[in-house]
Sequence to fold (206 residues):
Amino acid sequence: MKSARLWLSFGAAILCAVWLKPAVWGHDPEAVKTAPRFERREIELPIRDFTLTDQNGRRLSFNRLSGRVVVLGFGYTSCPDVCPLLTATMLSVQRRVPENQRGSVYFLTITTDPEIDTPAILETYARRYGADLSNWAFLTGPPEALEKVWENFRLRPTKKARGLVDHTPLILLIDRQGIARFAYIGVSPQAQILLQDLTGLLKRSS
Fold:
């Protein structure tokens, strides 16, 4: 049994390393122009529990969301280009989830720039986009706590200057058991495809 668990952990690490290559894309116009527009990958990655602080200053642990399908994205509030596209995609999906299923879905955005993104800044950002905060949390925390979370997803944000961070444009779709089933990588994620996959997970685990 111990050997099986070791192989499962090893396999998950290899899978994660593969689906998150390359780890970082830059913000310069040429990098954004040549980055993949959209790539959907089916994965199977158990998510380790983590605890961060939401836009209201409250602590939120990932394990508290057990039983819900989770849409998880990464970004930061001063991002000039890609992050607004990811936020807009998640917002589009949130608004299109049927009313009778909203309680079964939760959205998370984890900052890649804790230097800037305090809870108050995140709340202002969320309200500017019109996010429904009843089932969407924008998360921050100390750099050391966030680094552990980023590592869980093989994410390696690179600070270029104050308020400018390079990172993989990534959204994950996680099932009710806390296993990431789909990764959407690129600068132009497709809300309709994400919504279809989300609907499939809701039906599969209902």
In short: The domain at 2-204 is CATH 3.40.30.10 (Glutaredoxin). The beta strands are 39-46, 51-53, 59-61, 69-75, 105-111, 136-139, 158-161, 164-166, 170-174, 179-185. The chain has six helices and ten strands.
